[in-house]
Amino acid sequence: MSIDTDTARKVAHLARIKVEEDDLPALAGELSGILTFMEQLGEVDIEGVEPMTSVTPMRLKRREDVVTDGNMQDRILANAPDAREGFFAVPKVVE
């Protein structure tokens, strides 16, 4: 697939990247190269290949999904400049 300079300009605009007019042909060439590589990857036969989470076979560590308060209220409030009754105290901002 080939990308022209107009398409490269649109991609740069969508990505919010400022690209000078002189640099658009180079950007179009790079994008075309990336798409060509993606097309080559699509031609690879992956029939029977298991998905991987890592290059070394390992099981992901699992833990029980339990909601807790962390049991660290005192340690967290120790960093607060002002704490009252187990909460952060902040100045009143609304009358």
TrEMBL record:
InterPro entries: Asp/Glu-ADT_sf_sub_c (IPR036113), GatC (IPR003837). The keyword Secreted does not apply. The keyword Nuclease does not apply. It holds the Pfam family GatC. Keywords: ATP-binding, Ligase, Nucleotide-binding, Protein biosynthesis. It is an enzyme of class 6 (ligase). It catalyses: L-glutamyl-tRNA(Gln) + L-glutamine + ATP + H2O = L-glutaminyl-tRNA(Gln) + L-glutamate + ADP + phosphate + H(+); L-aspartyl-tRNA(Asn) + L-glutamine + ATP + H2O = L-asparaginyl-tRNA(Asn) + L-glutamate + ADP + phosphate + 2 H(+). It comes from the Bacteria. Its EC number is 6.3.5.-. NCBIfam families: gatC. Allows the formation of correctly charged Asn-tRNA(Asn) or Gln-tRNA(Gln) through the transamidation of misacylated Asp-tRNA(Asn) or Glu-tRNA(Gln) in organisms which lack either or both of asparaginyl-tRNA or glutaminyl-tRNA synthetases. The reaction takes place in the presence of glutamine and ATP through an activated phospho-Asp-tRNA(Asn) or phospho-Glu-tRNA(Gln). PANTHER family: GLUTAMYL-TRNA(GLN) AMIDOTRANSFERASE SUBUNIT C, MITOCHONDRIAL (PTHR15004). Heterotrimer of A, B and C subunits. Belongs to the GatC family. This is Aspartyl/glutamyl-tRNA(Asn/Gln) amidotransferase subunit C. The lineage of its organism: Bacteria, Pseudomonadati, Pseudomonadota, Alphaproteobacteria, Rhodobacterales. The gene is gatC.
